[in-house]
Design brief:
Pfam families: HTH_38, rve. It comes from Lancefieldella parvula. The protein is an alpha/beta fold. The chain folds into three domains: about 70 residues, no CATH class; about 60 residues, no CATH class; about 160 residues, Nucleotidyltransferase, domain 5 (2-Layer Sandwich). The strands form two sheets. Strands 3-8-7-4-5-6 form a six-stranded mixed beta sheet, with helices on both faces. The protein has a two-stranded antiparallel ribbon with strand order 1-2. The longest helix has 15 residues.
């Protein structure tokens, strides 16, 4: 089977001259070495009629322009062709702190098809083609959460004092590890300035749903108060903590809440990995050394809410709030 090539502008100019001289389609096709059906289709598609004139009119420049328009219309639409989608993606990255993968996954979940892939979004970001959606000379790439960098926290030395624990992790019910139910929480605190207030974080293992708030200090008494306030009204079946001194009064907390509290092994943060990962996300908003006393409860609540509404890959691009509350939201 021979290779078909589109008519060139030079060939269209020849057709225009010969057609104007009333040469037949067969004659024109023979001169150009083309199939006569190609010439017939070209004239019918790109020619036009004039009232009272039986012969179709044909002009090379008009034919070429019509062809170019049709080709452009047939091109596959890309991310950059839809200004609404483009602006929405930039908003989700810059204001909601979604990753490109979370955006692509959530679009597929809500729309039942994937209008844009994760790699397409990354290419548009790194080429600077989304920067036009930001004022001034700002860069969308600089607004990505990690900017391509990751912290490495291996080989940290535990310098905190030892505490009296309530239950070892090995005593925890096996179903907790399966993440098949709501109500198994992992807890920790996020430090701001030394000896200042701390953020209390409690994360549900199944859904990743985050609750918490600000403790007046890192003392075990203040942390206990903040944990009880955070979990009030929530489904609570177990709590898993690390061995930090802020949890020295875990026995009192266990009695107050009425559920068993389990402790990870020393230097095993992955045993409460859901919470550890969430704390890393919180650090993007409140870096180490932040004066948390100057941060209002409303600001902290807004950050926690934003994280609860961020789609997660392991949840099938649902967000923690949806899984925890068994409801569906429209996030886009």
């Amino acid at each position: 089977m021979g290779h078909y090539s589109h008519l060139s502008i030079e060939e269209r100019e020849d057709i225009m001259v010969w057609w104007k001289n009333h040469e037949s389609i067969s004659q024109i096709a023979r001169k150009l070495g083309r199939n006569k059906s190609s010439i017939s289709r070209e004239i019918k598609r790109n020619g036009w009629t004039i009232i009272g004139v039986a012969h179709l009119c044909y002009r090379a420049s008009t034919a070429q322009r019509k062809t170019d328009v049709r080709r452009q219309a047939c091109k596959k639409r890309t991310l950059l062709d839809d200004p609404n989608l483009r602006a929405r993606i930039v908003f989700l990255i810059c204001s909601r702190h979604f990753s490109p993968e979370q955006i692509a996954g959530r679009l597929h979940l809500e729309l039942s098809y994937a209008p844009v892939s994760c790699s397409t979004i990354y290419r548009a970001i790194h080429s600077g083609k989304l920067d036009c959606e930001l004022p001034g000379v700002q860069s969308v790439r600089r607004r990505l959460r990690h900017r391509g960098k990751r912290r490495h926290t291996k080989h940290l030395i535990e310098r905190r004092g030892k505490i009296r624990i309530t239950h070892e992790l090995i005593e925890r019910p096996k179903e907790v590890a399966d993440r098949q139910r709501i109500g198994d929480w992992e807890g920790d605190t996020v430090i701001g300035k030394a000896k200042g207030p701390r953020l209390v974080t409690q994360v549900d293992r199944m859904s990743g749903y985050l609750v918490g708030g600000k403790a007046a200090s890192g003392s075990s008494a203040d942390v206990n108060v903040a944990i009880q306030q955070a979990l009030r009204g929530e489904v609570v079946k177990t709590i898993t903590l690390d061995r930090g001194s802020e949890f020295a009064r875990a026995a009192e907390l266990q009695e107050a809440i009425g559920v068993s509290i389990y402790f990870c092994l020393p230097h095993h943060p992955w045993q409460r990995g859901t919470n550890e990962n969430t704390n890393g996300l919180i650090r993007e908003y409140f870096p180490k050394g932040t004066d948390l006393s100057s941060i209002s409860d409303r600001e902290i609540e807004a950050v926690y809410n934003e994280l609860n509404l961020r789609p997660r890959k392991r949840l099938g691009w649902k967000c923690p709030w949806e899984v925890y509350h068994h409801q569906t939201l429209h996030l886009l």
